[in-house]
Amino acid sequence: MAASGVALPEVKEVAFLERIGAHSHIRGLGLDDSLEARQSSQGMVGQVAARRAAGVVLEMIKDGKIAGRAMLLAGSPGTGKTAIAMAMSRALSTDSPFTNMSASEIYSLEMSKTEALTQSIRKSIGVRIKEETEIIEGEVVEIMVDTPASGTGQKVGKLTLKTTEMETVYDLGGKMIDSLMKEKVQAGDVITIDKATGKITKLGRSFARARDYDATGAQTRFVQCPEGELQKRKEVVHTVTLHEIDVINSRTQGFLALFSGDTGEIKTEVRDQINTKVAEWREEGKAEIAPGVLFIDEAHMLDIECFSFLNRALENEMSPIIIMATNRGITRIRGTNYKSPHGIPIDLLDRMIIIKTVPYDEKELKQILKIRSEEEDVEISDDALAVLTRIAGDTSLRYAIQLITTAGVVARRRKATEVGMDDVKKVYSLFLDENRSMQYLKEHQSEYMFSEIGGGDAPLGSKSEQMEISS
Ligand SMILES: Nc1ncnc2c1ncn2[C@@H]1O[C@H](COP(=O)(O)OP(=O)(O)OP(=O)(O)O)[C@@H](O)[C@H]1O
Ligand SMILES: [Mg+2]
Questions:
Q1: What span, in angstroms and rounded, lies between the C-alpha atoms of 214 and 377?
Q2: Ligand number nearest to the C-alpha of 78
Q3: Domain holding 170: CATH number?
Q4: 16 located within any domain
Q5: How many Å apart are CA 245 and CA 289, to the nearest integer?
Q6: Do residues 200 and 143 share a domain?
Q7: Which of 20, 23, 396 to mutate to test the pocket of ligand 1 (most atoms within 8 A of CB)?
Q8: Whose CA is nearest to atom 8 of ligand 1?
Q9: How many angstroms separate the alpha carbon of residue 79 from the centre of ligand 1?
Q10: Residues 136 and 117 in one domain
Q11: Domain stops at, among 236, 266, 287
């Protein structure tokens, strides 16, 4: 049999480079069907009330009917606010956009603050566009290609396609010939051609021609010769964000700006036109809005102008769900001399639902540290984990998480397979946590330049004064 001589193409292995980020262990909110938080699931531990609340909000978002809601995650540092937002983004369906930004980003962009916020908002709203495309679907009877005698110049050719009822000959241009070659289309294949884009898809080989060639691999799919007309209509749905539509339609930028990210400011007229167009599409049933989430971390870094802008934006019918997170208590609202809870103006707070996160107990800290060591591929002994948990309780969870990696390196250096108590002790003495660093600075202040904690104009080395202010 001739088929035995056919070599299958070699399968190339694709290696993915996975980096371990601060929240890479989190895969979802870890809720059960009744939205009750499991003590430890999908990488999330404890913080059950906040997780459950986040789950309820997520349901609301998935329904897609509610616009203009805002939610605030408030709690002390390291209590999992960012983690919960990440979990929500992972649990959201793929075609609802999730935009993740830190409030301070808006100050570093070469555009106004409100433009930056508008872009983020429009990045968070998906538009599902339904499109009917015309396709040609049939079995290939024959492909004929004429190469010009000179060897150069346009190639031309003819393609004969048939269904069970009809047969048509199509003229081929150079591009079509190239894509037919690329797809290795031959007589007996059943193909579709997208009329608008010219994209060719091979559906399989026709049953009728199954015996013509024995050089077909095991993967070959056999399909029936299509029935009816060669030309057909097919519905496809794609989701794009409003921001993408903006960029593509703003004449100065063009779609290439999507790749560079360098979109600059977009004119209001462009946005107005697009809003009108999208509204039209919605009325005609061609498009649907898929509202997503805009997550603004460190929200206390926004200033009063941003807050009033967001207040207004939330009233818009096309607003996404806005989630903010902050670890500040009562503090000054940026850009004013007024203080308010979380540094967020009261009128905006009034529109938000506030979810609070609380510090972890020892058992939960231990569990999180355990999950993190697994994530970082660090084996850790029970007593070392206990010490690490103590450290997390006394200093901070983040500091303890950092020690996992460093202790792992130390253990590997001494060729141990497991991190022991001594490794943790070693890195604990090598790397200071925030408290000990502060303590050290207080004691050795005079040895540093520009001792600013003591106030700008304090003479260098006046230790007693500095101590008084900073402690
Ligand atoms: N409930 C949890 N389950 C699993 N991991 C958690 C949990 N809470 C926090 N973590 C992990 O602990 C670390 C610190 O948490 P996170 O960054 O979410 O804190 P935060 O509340 O955003 O703090 P900050 O106010 O400083 O921004 C992260 O690596 C996070 O993934
Ligand atoms: Mg955070």
A1: 50
A2: 1
A3: 2.40.50.360
A4: no
A5: 13
A6: yes
A7: 23
A8: 80
A9: 5
A10: no
A11: 287
CB-CB contact of 244 with 261 (8 Å): no
Q: Give tens-digit pLDDT for 365-419.
A: 999 999 999 999 999 999 999 999 999 999 999 999 999 999 999 999 989 889 9
Q: Is the pLDDT of residue 471 over 50?
A: no
Distance 80 CA to ligand 1 centre (A): 3
Domain boundary at 236, 255, 287, which?
Answer: 287
* Total tally of structural domains belonging to the chain: 4
Among the bound ligands, name the one nearest to the CA of residue 22.
1
Q: Which residues surround ligand 1 with Cβ inside 6 Å? A: 22-23, 26, 43-47, 75, 77-83, 327, 368, 397-398, 401
Residues 142 and 270 in one domain: yes
Mean pLDDT of 214-239: 80
In a mutational test of the pocket of ligand 1, which residue from 20, 42, 47, 81 has the highest number of ligand atoms less than 8 Å from its CB?
Answer: 81
Contact 96, 290 (CB under 8 A): yes
Whole-structure pTM value: 0.72
Distance 413 CA to ligand 1 centre (A): 29
Distance 314 CA to ligand 2 centre (A): 23
3-state DSSP call for residue 277?
helix
Instruction: Based on the fold, state whether residues 130 and 238 are members of the same structural domain.
Output: yes
In a domain, 172, yes or no: yes
| Residue 46 CB burial class (10 angstroms; 0-12, 13-18, ≥19) | buried
For residue 448, what are the domain limits? Answer: 438-470
Residues 155 and 263 in one domain: yes
